[in-house]
Write a structure and sequence with these properties.
Layout (H helix, E strand, L loop, with lengths): L5 E4 L6 H6 L3 E4 L20 H11 L7 E5 L2 H13 L5 E5 L6 H22 L5 H21 L5 H12 L20 E7 L7 H7 L2 E7 L18 H14 L9 H14 L4 E7 L3 H17 L3 E6 L10 H10 L1
Length: about 325
């Protein structure tokens, strides 16, 4: 594998089809939760632990350190700034993302994709054609459907591990650790929502406590696969317009402006998958999800859906202390 063609990415709004069409290898960065403190000299400790874990891992990794960032939150902007200073000779690009899912937002995102194509051409000398972009969209759609098929009936931990394997370039069905958690009908079915979690942390403890995580509405879980980003069109302009609309139509995260649509989809998914309650788990210092929770809680109360809020520091070394709360919540529902 040509390491110079590997490009790290961090956000589910990253247009992976653009990187695919350029002949590059997009690989989602998950960082190293065990050494995230080693990034504290460059990133403040009171910032997203996922961002710190990603930087900590990269500081000890061999280059190149190519990365595509999405301007989705302050933590990602600060990670981009630090990454650019630390690895100035590599391809490090920040792409803007609109918060509104309207025509103006679609046009803005399509323009951002054009700027990205130009930056990729300048760095690697490749021109993204409409044919290659359409082929990339087809391959991504096939991967999305393969993920949904391979995780049917899987527990929450396995769903997150499958998504991780697929996003880092391995097959979704590859089970190298031999630990598929097929829960069957045992356990209390819950839906897990939030931003991003360590597959070996909080989710594992939820399942040990007797939960059956039937859906992971996380940006490193099912949310990335529950809607298509298949583009249509005859030329590049039409394809980029279609691709932009598809990305903005996917299940939104808390930083997007259409919160009512997010809550509608959350309620709809909870009922569709048969969850009896929701665990709202977010990373520490994530303002978007901290501000979002009271509104989510009010909406779920109106719908009669129980919810428990938990917080993760991405290492989840403290999660054993939460077992009493988790067990009490499961008994209540």
């Amino acid at each position: 594998m040509d390491k110079d063609r590997i490009v790290a990415w961090f956000c589910t709004y990253t247009p992976l089809e653009m990187l695919d069409a350029a002949g590059l290898i997009p690989s989602r960065h998950f960082g190293d939760p065990q050494i995230l403190e080693s990034a504290d000299a460059l990133l403040h400790p009171a910032i997203c632990p996922y961002a710190r874990a990603c930087l900590a891992h990269e500081l000890k990794a061999d280059g190149p350190h190519h990365a595509l960032f999405i301007n989705s939150c302050d933590a990602m902007r600060r990670l981009y700034d630090t990454w650019k200073d630390a690895f100035s000779g590599d391809f490090i690009y920040l792409m803007d993302l609109p918060r509104n899912q309207d025509g103006g937002g679609e046009r803005m995102l399509a323009e951002e994709m054009k700027h990205l194509a130009a930056a990729l051409r300048e760095r690697w000398g490749v021109t993204i054609t409409s044919r290659e972009l359409l082929r990339a969209c087809v391959r991504r759609e096939e991967s999305r459907l393969a993920y949904l098929d391979s995780t049917r009936g899987a527990g929450g931990g396995e769903r997150l591990r499958s998504a991780m394997r697929l996003h880092t370039g391995l097959e979704a069905g590859d089970d190298s650790d031999g630990e598929r958690t097929r829960g069957g009908t045992a356990g209390t079915p819950i839906l897990l929502t939030g931003n991003l979690l360590n597959p070996e942390g909080l989710v594992t403890w939820l399942e040990r406590a007797g939960a059956r995580v039937v859906w992971t509405d996380l940006c490193n879980g099912d949310r990335a696969f529950c809607s298509s980003t298949m583009a249509e069109g005859e030329d590049m302009d039409e394809l980029l317009a279609s691709l932009s609309a598809a990305y903005l139509e996917r299940h939104p995260c808390a930083r997007m402006s259409d919160s009512s649509r997010r809550y509608d989809l959350l309620v709809e998914t909870t009922r569709r998958v048969g969850a009896r309650g929701i665990v709202y788990a977010s990373l520490k210092f994530c303002d978007s999800y901290l501000y979002d929770y009271p509104l989510v809680e009010d909406r779920l109360k109106e719908e009669g859906i129980p919810v428990l809020r938990l917080e993760s520091d991405y290492t989840d070394g403290h999660v054993g202390q939460l077992m009493t709360r988790i067990e009490a919540f499961l008994e209540m529902i």
